[in-house]
Model the fold of this input.
Amino acid sequence: MARALMIYADSDRSMDLFHAIPRAITDPFLYVEHEGRRVAVVGHIDVQTIHETDPAVEILDPFALGRKALLEAGMDYWSGDFEVCARAVAKLGIREALVSWDFPAAVADRLRADGVDVLVDHRAFQARRRVKKGHRQELTVLRIADIKFNGKSAAEQVRKAEADAKSERQRVEEAAAKQAAADAALAAKLQQRDTKAADEAPKKGRASAKPEAKAASTAKAAPKTSRAKAADTKSDTKKPDTKPASRPRAKKDE
Done:
């Protein structure tokens, strides 16, 4: 007959039990793996929690094993719990079980009293935890939705501030888009002007070349005219006046 693997603890403090059922269960309970079955002896309070974590885990109800009758008979809480564990082990047909080093001695003694061979082997449990899946501790996340004081809502103020910031951001974006469009229009206008100036430059060059040629020819003809005028002036100064000066006529005596 195969050996069963057995844990009696709560998942808050037992790493072995939390590895098997990764949910926070504060009350200790018996967990057994035997012949392909996984069984937890828990009350109705923790049934939903275990099934949400792993639906494959079978549940044995302590009250179905006579827990209420044991308590009514005067047995204390822990003794009644140990007796329920012994009845669950007997119902599952377990005659030999492996437990870790922290398995309660009181539970082990009660099982040994029924002839169950309880063997301590912490290496078997350590080997189960070799493969790490990260930190899986169940945490409670508390989110504060709003704080109100003197009729003022902190959440409403935050929403208003976000709305104002969004409006301001939209205004800045619109102004930037408008400025970008104006810059693009100005750039296109300047480019058009430069293109037009580049096209008109050759025409202006040809037009200005003609007056310059005419001025050059005029400048060449100007010295000849000056020389001719100078020659005429010189010849005029050399010719003396050949006409004799007129003498006054003598008056006749009357």
